[in-house]
Amino acid sequence: MKKIIILIVSFFVSESLLAQVQQVVYVGRDKNTNAPCKLYVNNVGYKNDQRVPENFYMDVLPRGFSHGIDSAGPFRLGTVADKPNILYSLQNADEMVLFFENGDYLTGEPSGFNVKWLHGNHFHYDVCRNLRRK
User: Fold this and answer.
1) 3-state secondary structure of 94
2) 11-52: per-residue pLDDT in tens?
3) How many other C-beta atoms are found inside a 10 Å radius of the C-beta of residue 38?
4) In whole angstroms, what is the distance from residue 58 CA to residue 112 CA?
5) 20 vs 86: CA distance, rounded Å
6) What is the pTM of this model?
7) Fewer Cβ close by (within 10 Å): the C or N end of the chain?
8) Coil vs helix vs strand at 3
9) For the chain, first and last CA: distance in Å?
10) Pick the CATH number of 2-133 from 2.40.128, 3.40.1350, 1.10.10, 2.60.40
11) What are the two backbone dihedrals, phi and then psi, of residue 85, each rounded to the nearest 5 degrees?
């Protein structure tokens, strides 16, 4: 009985999350410099409208880190098996991990992210913490 109730609650939470996202902005601080960093959540959904965890995605654009005119993103993040508090993307050589506190990707709020992105012949590693909805 508990599994059925949890499944029903999860379905309604995910439905409300999908309905509310037009563009949501989170603001945090660079772990190393304390400079502002941002996360733009542009879209949330399920591939092929199949509402199973492995088909969940979140389209995001991290900002606050750049080198000249180059910067990381955008990214399409997906779920990681047995890790409901993170979303992950590896696109070409660029990589992003988005962390959630006080819940998972459906019930929690993003708390921070790590980004590794290729710039010319070297990588940049950026860390944004303490994200709060703007």
Assistant:
1) strand
2) 334 444 554 557 899 999 999 899 999 999 999 999 998 899
3) 16
4) 15
5) 20
6) 0.79
7) N
8) helix
9) 38
10) 2.40.128
11) -100, 10
